[in-house]
Write a structure and sequence with these properties.
Layout: H1 2-14, E1 36-37, E2 51-54, E3 74-81, E4 91-102, E5 105-116, E6 119-126, E7 135-136, E8 138-142, H2 147-150, H3 152-160, E9 168-172, H4 183-188, H5 194-211, E10 214-215, E11 222-227, H6 229-240, E12 247-251, H7 272-280, E13 287-293, H8 310-324, E14 327-333, H9 341-356, H10 361-364
Parallel strand pairs: 1-2, 2-14, 7-10, 8-9, 8-11, 11-12, 12-13, 13-14
Antiparallel strand pairs: 3-6, 4-5, 6-9
Helix pairs in contact: 7-8
């Protein structure tokens, strides 16, 4: 549903067919960052801050299979009614759209919206052996809540093998729709700390009360993760609320110009991360894993702004992160599309382990 809705939106703005095939890029194309090509089934070193290529054949990671004598965590789910929250109440939904550009800003299109009430589900994974009242490190995952169940076995194994700390996973549904004019776009694509504040004020207290867990206040013990706009949102949260999050994991990150409505402080949306923000601002205490597929999204769109190429955006992210000395790892997946499950089946356990590396070494031992 998520992937289709983005293709529908992009096709509508570009006046093209949804079925248009995405171009396939090679890791050694002109302008790409230098990559190290890995063997089939191999994952990058955990201590590397560099760019790597995997695929096009993928081997599902063994951490996806239930291990013998591995203690199992528990999964709970609850719902949040927008009418009971202070932030993002009411939500928005898109009405009529056109291919007309905003006369005040040619980098965005005119979009009509109307207010809506909505409900979002939240799935929570609590690791085995968690002791009520103790502070737990945690990872927020966007476009939930299904990941709480689908990641459960993987997290059980990684925690049991002491490769990550015993984290709580909070998988939060978006508010509905996709991109400009919809609640999901308002939450995920805009360049501000509003959604991180929403999670802090509205979601985490409900997680603690409902699931009888206590979440750490240490930003180094907090991670944000997501795919597509959920990925760019994960970095937006850490960038604008570094007091809350230091660890970020993105797949097919939408580091492009999707923000709406137009904000003159950040005229390029998330494209601004690699265009101006990371290169020009002081280095922040953020550890960042990024990934993209060779057949990931490209959309020339009606704006013709050259800021809607997902592969190029992630290439540029890798370059500026390297230049600025960030702790980062970049994975370029061959034979892989947008938010591609077959590639994630191989690399996601590694990505989660890499994201948490360095946290509370004494706690993991």
């Amino acid at each position: 549903m998520l992937r289709l809705s983005r293709f529908v939106l992009m096709a509508a703005l570009a006046g093209s067919s949804v079925a248009t095939a995405q171009p396939v890029r090679k890791y050694d194309d002109k302008g790409a960052p230098p990559f190290k090509v890995l063997k089939e089934g191999e994952t990058p070193p955990l201590d590397a801050y560099d760019n790597f290529v995997i695929g096009p054949k993928y081997t599902p990671a063994p951490e996806r299979t239930k291990g013998q004598d591995v203690p199992e965590g528990r999964v709970e789910q609850f719902e949040i009614d927008s009418k009971e929250t202070k932030l993002f109440n009411p939500g928005i939904s898109r009405g009529r759209t056109t291919q007309k550009l905003d006369p005040n800003n040619p980098k965005t299109v005119l979009v009509e919206t109307f207010p809506i009430d909505y409900k979002r589900k939240v799935g929570v994974y609590v690791p085995a052996g968690y002791k009520e009242g103790t502070e737990a490190p945690f990872m927020v995952v966007h476009d939930g809540p299904n990941q709480a169940n689908s990641y459960k076995t993987m997290l059980d194994n990684l925690i049991h093998q002491k490769r990550i700390p015993p984290i709580v996973l909070v998988a939060i549904a978006n508010g509905g729709g996709d991109a400009q004019g919809h609640e999901r776009g308002k939450e995920y694509d805009n360049m501000n700390g509003d959604y991180a504040t929403y999670i802090e004020d509205e979601v985490l207290p409900r997680v603690e009360k409902t699931c009888k867990v206590k979440m750490t206040k240490d930003p180094d013990g907090r991670a944000a993760m997501g795919c597509s706009s959920g990925g760019s949102c994960a970095l937006i949260m850490a960038w604008f609320r570094t007091d809350l999050y230091h660890r970020v994991l993105t797949t097919s990150g939408t580091f492009v110009n999707q923000a709406w409505p137009f904000d003159p402080k950040y005229p390029d949306g998330a494209w601004g991360f690699h265009e101006t923000l990371i290169p020009k601002e002081a280095k922040k205490p953020i550890r960042l894993f990024i990934q993209v597929g060779d057949k990931d999204l490209y959309n020339p769109n009606v704006m013709r702004d050259n800021m809607h190429d997902w592969v190029e955006a992630n290439h540029r992210m890798a370059k500026v992160l390297k230049d600025k000395g960030y702790e980062y790892q970049y994975l370029f997946c061959q034979g892989s599309g947008h938010c591609d499950g077959k590639a994630q089946a191989q690399f996601l356990p590694h990505a989660i382990e890499w994201t948490w590396k360095g946290y509370g070494e004494k706690k993991v031992k």
